[in-house]
Backbone:
């Protein structure tokens, strides 16, 4: 069996490894236009802020390690044409320019995503930086120690983290976003307002509800022009978002309007023998029970593993995702899963939520910390569709608990009565997850 994998970030790496485990005899050709694999781009801001022990540890595999596992790595090689029905590829060595054609039994599309980069005047300036891949990370790490100021465009997770790390390392930062609050697509307002206050207290200028119109180089920096103002700094960094990198396959497989490739629950596309995973593909989103586009490394890893399990015959179905994620800004942890009420409304769900705040453990302890907790549910069924937690205490696993509840279609009443342990070092007699579920049940009963 001869298999081609196009792209080697997370989904491609895990697909290749799992195929080799399941089918040791398979010939696996991995095509990657860069010279690295498995880069954990979520660590870019942390590296800029000097929180990374070694940049080499931001990779969990290398071309050499995958080769040792019996996988044929074609690094610095770009697939230029793909006839998916015929399973025929044309690829080019980027160093020599040599083109080669080959045919395969199966093809796995793990081409990932590309950063959103609108065609704005001046956006290609050398003083405007991207923040997606290893090359971007190295460049930012080289440049940022010597700057005094930066404009960050995009207040999602990437932009939010970059703005925070630049501000705590003494840079003057302006954070621009088209929506009216930071992390607007990730949080409810009562959570984002906490972060906005922290940004302001740390000297970050928030330029919200503004759309960038152009970039203009100055004698010693860059000028960012929006529909409401002009902001100058040494550099600008883009963190606007991602879109699927799938243009080459348009018209050959079923896709969403944004180019995300649709798959069945075994990760196979509309063309038999062609699989897709990761940022190039859709996910089944359990809160809505529909397919969606949510580019996260966690989704990519699981989908890659499933490709390996199902490459010969359907064996293990995709359980879907809750898009569980977390961020820590100014020592405040935020972890969430599923939808906010705004997110639910945008997707046609009639939802309700409740938010509480309480100490995570009893007051008789010498210290304790407040936890803000929120739960979102479908009004008609009381099915849990989202949850969020914020604290200076580590609340990250609470989001995983609610993620499991969403996947198993639990109601707020069921979660309210779920057994959680009590021990004063760790929590209250009624755990804060139980408390917010009880508050939700009480609100729903009214």
Residues:
């Amino acid at each position: 069996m001869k298999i081609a994998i196009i792209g080697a970030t997370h989904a491609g790496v895990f697909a290749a490894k799992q195929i080799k485990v399941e089918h040791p005899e398979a010939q696996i050709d991995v095509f990657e236009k860069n010279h690295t694999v498995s880069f954990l781009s979520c660590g870019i801001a942390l590296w800029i802020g000097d929180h990374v022990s070694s940049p080499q540890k931001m990779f969990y595999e290398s071309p050499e390690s995958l080769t040792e596992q019996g996988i044929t790595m074609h690094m610095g090689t770009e697939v230029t044409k793909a006839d998916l029905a015929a399973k025929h590829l044309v690829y080019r060595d980027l160093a020599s320019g040599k083109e080669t054609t080959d045919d395969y039994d199966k093809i796995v599309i793990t081409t990932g995503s590309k950063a959103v980069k609108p065609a704005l005047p001046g956006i290609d300036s050398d003083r405007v930086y991207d923040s997606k891949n290893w090359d971007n990370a190295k460049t930012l790490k080289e440049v940022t120690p010597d700057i005094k100021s930066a404009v960050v465009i995009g207040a999602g997770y990437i932009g939010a983290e970059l703005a925070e790390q630049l501000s705590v390392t003494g840079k003057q930062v302006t954070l621009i976003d088209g929506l009216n609050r930071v992390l607007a697509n990730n949080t409810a307002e009562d959570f984002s307002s906490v972060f906005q206050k922290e940004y302001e207290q740390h000297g970050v200028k928030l330029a919200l509800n503004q759309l960038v119109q152009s970039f203009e180089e100055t004698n010693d920096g860059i000028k960012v022009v929006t529909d409401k103002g002009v902001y100058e700094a040494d550099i600008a960094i883009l963190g606007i978002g991602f879109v699927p990198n799938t243009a080459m396959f348009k018209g050959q497989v079923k896709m969403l309007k944004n180019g995300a490739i649709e798959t069945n629950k075994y990760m196979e596309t509309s063309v038999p023998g062609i699989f897709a995973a990761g940022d190039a593909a859709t996910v089944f989103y359990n809160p809505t029970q529909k397919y969606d586009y949510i580019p996260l490394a966690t989704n990519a890893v699981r989908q890659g593993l499933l490709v390996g399990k199902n490459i010969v015959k359907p064996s293990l179905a995709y359980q879907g995702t809750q898009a569980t994620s977390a961020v820590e800004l100014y020592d405040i942890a935020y972890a969430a899963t599923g939808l906010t009420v705004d997110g639910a409304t945008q997707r046609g769900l009639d939802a309700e939520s409740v938010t509480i705040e309480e100490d995570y453990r009893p007051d008789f302890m010498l210290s304790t910390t407040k936890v803000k907790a929120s739960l979102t549910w479908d009004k008609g069924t009381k099915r849990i569709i989202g949850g969020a937690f914020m604290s200076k205490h580590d609340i990250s696993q609470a989001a995983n608990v609610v993620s499991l509840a969403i996947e198993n279609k639990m109601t707020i009443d069921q979660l309210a009565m779920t057994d959680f342990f009590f021990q004063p070092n760790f929590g209250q007699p009624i755990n804060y997850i139980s408390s917010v579920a009880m508050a939700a049940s009480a609100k729903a009963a009214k």
The CA atoms of residues 354 and 443 lie 8 Å apart. The two ends are 61 Å apart (CA to CA). The chain has three domains: 2-34+51-114+242-310, 128-238, 327-445. The first strand starts at residue 2 and ends at 6.
